[in-house]
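Customer escalation, tier 2.

The customer says the design service returned an amino acid string that "doesn't look like it belongs to this structure." They asked us to rerun it and document both sides in this ticket. The original C-alpha cells are below, unchanged.
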C-alpha cells in the first residue's frame, strides 16, 4: 500500500517520496506566486503546510507527533529531489539573483494543479493559501525566526548553516 509499480517492474513509493514532496512544493510555490522561494524556505513550508496548527492556523493535515520537529532533518533531501522533478517537468522556474537561486511556480503550474481534484489535494491547496497569507510578505530571515520559535533552534542547527543561508544548487 502507498506504492506504485512502474512499467519497468520497480516499486516507487508514493508517501514520503520526492514525488509527494515535489507536489507539495508546487502547491506551496503556486500559493506564494509570484514570490520565488529558497530551498530552505521550501523545507520550512513543506513542514508548515501540513502542520498549520503549529502556527495557530487551521487543523494540521498530518498528525501532531512529538518528534515532528525532527521531520525537517529528512525533508531537505526530499525537497531537493522533488524540486528536481518539478524542474524536469518544467513546472517551476529558477530565479537566480542577488539573493541566490530560488524557485518560482511556472506558467503551467496552475493548470497542472487544477488536475489534482481529490479532497486531500484541495485541503492542501487551502492550507498553502493560508500559509502564504500568513508568511508571504515576510523576508526569509523573519520566516526563519518563526520556524525557530515554533520548532526550536536545535532543528535549524541540525539543518546546517549552509541550509539556512544558501540555496541548493
Amino acid at each position: 500500500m502507498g506504492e506504485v509499480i512502474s512499467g519497468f517492474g520497480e516499486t516507487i513509493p508514493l508517501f514520503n517520496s520526492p514525488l509527494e514532496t515535489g507536489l507539495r512544493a508546487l502547491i506551496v510555490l503556486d500559493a506564494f506566486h509570484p514570490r520565488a522561494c529558497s530551498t530552505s524556505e521550501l523545507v520550512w513550508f513543506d513542514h508548515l503546510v501540513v502542520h498549520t496548527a503549529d502556527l495557530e492556523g487551521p487543523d494540521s493535515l498530518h498528525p501532531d507527533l512529538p518528534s515532528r520537529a525532527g521531520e525537517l532533518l529528512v525533508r531537505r533531501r526530499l525537497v531537493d529531489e522533488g524540486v528536481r522533478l518539478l524542474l524536469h517537468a518544467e513546472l517551476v522556474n529558477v530565479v537566480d539573483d542577488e539573493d541566490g537561486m530560488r524557485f518560482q511556480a511556472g506558467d503551467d503550474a496552475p493548470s497542472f494543479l487544477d488536475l489534482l481534484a481529490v479532497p486531500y489535494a484541495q485541503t492542501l491547496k487551502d492550507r498553502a493559501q493560508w500559509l502564504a497569507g500568513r508568511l508571504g510578505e515576510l523576508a526569509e530571515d523573519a520566516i526563519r525566526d518563526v520556524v525557530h520559535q515554533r520548532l526550536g533552534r536545535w532543528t535549524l542547527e541540525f539543518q546546517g548553516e549552509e541550509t539556512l543561508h544558501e540555496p541548493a544548487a
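Tier 2 assessment: The sequence is consistent with the input. The first strand starts at residue 3 and ends at 5. Residues 153-169 have pLDDT under 50 and may be disordered. Sent an explanation to the customer and offered a walkthrough call.
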